[in-house]
Every structure is written in C-alpha cells, then in structure tokens.
Amino acid sequence: MVPKHSESIIIVGAGCFGISTAYHLLQRGYTNVTVLDRSEKLPAPDAASTDINKIVRTSYSDVFYTQLARDAIQEWNKSDEWGDCYRGSGVLVIGGADDDDSEQPYSSKAYANDVAAGVRTLRFSSRDAAVRAAVFPPDVQIGPWLERASGYVNLDSGWALAARGVEKLMARVLALGGRVIGGKAVTGLVREDGTTTTTTTTTGVRLADGSSMSARLVVIASGSWTASTFRELDLCGNCLSTGQTVATIQLTPDEATRYKDVPVVLDFYTNFYIFPPNDDNVVKLALHGPGVAHYTTGDTDKQPVSTPRTISSHGEDGLRVPRSAVRRLRSSLRDVYPELAEKPFATTRLCWYTDSPDSDWTIGYYPPDSGLLLATSGSGHAYKARKILGFLPVIGRIVADAIEGTLDPAIAQKFAVDRKHTTLDLLRGTLKPVDLATEQLCTPEDLIP
C-alpha cells in the first residue's frame, strides 16, 4: 500500500540516494519526510557523496543509465538551481571506440550507447595528434599512454562538485518543509509480526541512544553502512561494502592554470581515472576496481559482513589506503601526466560504496514488508565513475516511483531486492575485493614519489 501524503516517511541516510529521495517526495506533495543520518556534521565527512568531485558521464554499457545520465546532465546545467556545481569538461574514455574492441566490452557498449543517444563524441587512436591538440592544452605534458591508447572523448559529460551538490539539494529539502537531522544513528528496525507467520512489517527505527521513531515507511539509503547496520536483513549477497582508493595532489596556482581545461581521463583498461583541478587547485585521482572489503562479525551473524573503515570509525587511521594501491595510482599517473607523478600525494582515503553483483541499483520494497524500502547499491555510480552522484538530481525520482508503485515493471525487476543476478559487472567480472586486513596500509613516506 502506497503511503498517504500525510503519513510519516523516515529516510535513513542523508547522502545521494537519501537526500534526492526526500526532495522528490516533497515535490510530489508528501508532507512528513524526515532524513536521519549518523553523522553530526552533514554531509557526513566519510560518505561516498562527500567528496571534492565525482564524474558525471553518459558513457555506460547499459543504455538505461546512459539515458538517465542525459536527463541528469540537463538538470546539472540549470545554473539557477545548481550554481557552478557542474563542470562540462568532457570525459576522455580510454578503450571501446574501435569497431570491434573485444578486450573492452564495457567501453565498446558505452560508446555505442553514447552515439545512439546523440552524445557528441570524438574518436581517437594511438599517436593521434589531432586529439592531442583538440583536447589537451599545448603546455600540458602527456605521458606514453597516448602512444598506444585508443578510445573516444565524450564531449557532453564532465564532473560535479560532490559535497556542494548534496548541500544544495539538502537546502531545498529544508525549504520544502522536510527535516534533515544529523547525529541520529539508526541501529536497527522496529518490526511487527504480520497476519501470517511469514510476514513482518517495519513500523520504525531504533536509534543508538535507545529511543525509537515510528514511521509508515522506512527507506534505507545508508550506502556502504547498509549491510552491517541492518544485519537482520541478510543483505550480504546484494549489498557488499567495498573501499576504493582515492588520492589528491595539491597544485600550485600556475600548475592549476595549465591543467584547468583538461578533460576527465577514464581508463577502462587499468580502472584509473583523474579529474581536472578544482577551485582549490586540487587534483583527485582514483582507482575503480574490486577494491577492498573490511569484514566484521556481529553477535548474530551467520557470516562476517564487510563494514566501512573510515575517519569516523577509525580516526585518522581510517584515511590510510593499501600501499599497493598507492603504487598503482602513481604508475598510472606517470603514464598520463608524468609531471604530476613527481609531486607528493596530499591526502588519501578509501571511498566506500555498496556494490551489487550485477552493478545495478537496489531500489524496491523488501519483500514482503510494505513498510520497508531499500535505495542502495550505488556501485559507485550514483555520483562517480561507477554510478550514483552524477544522478543526484534524478535518482530520487526513481525511488519515489518505486515507493508509489509506478516504475516500469522491467525497471522494477531490474532493481528488485530479491532479483536473480544473471549478469556480472562488466568492469570487474568475477574479481573479488581483497580483505583489507591482509593489505599493508600506506605510511606518509609512501605518499612521496
């Protein structure tokens, strides 16, 4: 049963999924929407959506995301709503633009989808001086990757200021009468037995301070903390928390001026990507791969559950990343921008996502509970090179449709909590995350070239 507009809806998590869902529900006339987040400071400093920037791209192997990303970019370009959050730098995709690139099926499909959607693209092959001149400023030193790489430039994509985008949408939620409350850590669900022995209905949430809050509907949008917070739901097969290595480099003002007009570089062969400098002259670079998992065991767990290890849970030590990943980052950076590879990394962090086996979102009611809906498994796509913040303006529309039961049946099944995972993530295949406990974490000395 769809909630009435006056009934209470609690959204757990004030990140991309949660705050966008709150906004779209309020836009549709719902008047009792409350967003709860464990962090006192919002946006939460260790959330995936709280980052200096995220890729916004239409280049996906699944045409659904390509088309939805085009809608999102149209919204991002509304400067009266988003200010300068979005930067249309273009995204250079390495791999996939050859007529038959069997080695990189993901980017091959992404290129075909971009072309079919009318996205402006510029193909290039190795030693392509024309692309070098058209895409990169002449005084930017390019590494040897251009000597051997082929791919295409997506001229209609770019990147967004991540935390600033969440802040702007949060302000709109508050202006529409929604409530966003930080420092309210949800530790579990309040549930009541139904009319049969197989049905249970969620009626609220339990909080860390021992209190509870009731609601007609609870929407879990807690990102990488989902499986470990709500262990009773046994979500490990659908919501795996993985950490991806991110680093930054501080440029001088002169360096930032030279690099400010470069595109995002996204290499689907090595899973390396790098941004142009932001307003603070900071360049972010990262790896997108299987990542790492951090397994912990609760009192009632049948198996360990991967749980984020962040600055909130482990202090400054939570910012350390595997030494092996630091080496990969620097090697890839030297291949693209050799000048920058000689600079120290200023910061590192593990950016934690909730991955699904097929890389599709998990959006739908938790069967057969009519009081509980999941909006998670961003697989990094909601804002970033994988799939969620780029969709910040529109992802809540999908969740609101799921709440109201108006999603196209094929899309509803695509995102269903209990769906069969018949396909794998094309970028990662069968690769599994490494146990973080077995990795040697970096030291400050590792950040110096």
Order of neighbouring strands in the sheet with most strands: 6-7-5-15-16-17-14-21
The count of helical stretches stands at 13
Structural class: alpha/beta
Can you tell me the number of structural domains?
Answer: 1
The name CATH uses for the topology is FAD/NAD(P)-binding domain
First-residue to last-residue Cα separation = 58 Å
Global geometry: globular
Q: Any idea what the radius of gyration is?
A: 21 Å
Largest sheet: 8 strands, mixed
Name of the CATH superfamily = FAD/NAD(P)-binding domain
Q: What share of residues is helical?
A: 25-40%
Q: Low-confidence spans: pLDDT under 50, at least 5 residues?
A: 380-385
Corresponding CATH architecture: 3-Layer(bba) Sandwich
- What percent strand? 15-25%
Number of strands: 24
Write the layout of secondary structure elements.
Elements: E1 9-12, H1 16-27, E2 33-36, E3 54-56, H2 63-76, H3 79-82, E4 86-87, E5 91-94, H4 105-116, E6 121-124, H5 129-135, H6 145-148, E7 151-154, E8 158-160, H7 162-175, E9 179-181, E10 186-193, E11 200-207, E12 212-214, E13 217-220, H8 226-229, E14 240-250, H9 253-259, E15 264-267, E16 272-274, E17 282-287, E18 292-293, E19 295-296, E20 305-306, H10 311-314, H11 323-336, E21 347-355, E22 362-365, E23 372-376, H12 392-404, H13 409-414, E24 434-435
